[in-house]
User: Fold HD domain-containing protein from Streptomyces shaanxiensis.
Amino acid sequence: MTETPQKHPHRLTLTDVEAIARTAHATQTDKAGRPYTEHLRAVAEGVRTRGGDDEQIAAAWLHDAVEDDALSEQWLEDAPLSRRTKDVVRALTKRPGEPPEAYAQRILTTPGALLVKEADLAHNADPSRLAALDEPTRKRLTEKYARMRALLGLVGE
Assistant:
């Protein structure tokens, strides 16, 4: 019996990945005090509306899991996910002390990662989300997101 490259009999489904991400981030809130899972849902939906595939949508649900210590690097390595999904999650995981330029370069050289990061930045920079923050935080984050968009070549949007 041969299997198609698209499906793997033991892979997690998107429903499974969403449930894992929601459980892993269940106690987390964003900078405005909202449940962090709202951000994950928005990024996954942003990937979907930008034409992303299931591997990218899975990565969107998991994009902050390792960075936030919600799931371990070992969990990611052992998880029944495609290599591409794992590579995108790793590309989007910021490393302590890593310069933004190195982070952006890793995203640009990892197939599928840029679309997920674009959706992440779009939600992070959403004016309604930023409006809930104090002015210094809003200003700092707006500048940070604009710089990352420029490093990734996401201009004029």
Q: What stands out?
A: Confidence is low (pLDDT under 50) at residues 1-6. Residues 135-151 form the longest helix (17 residues).
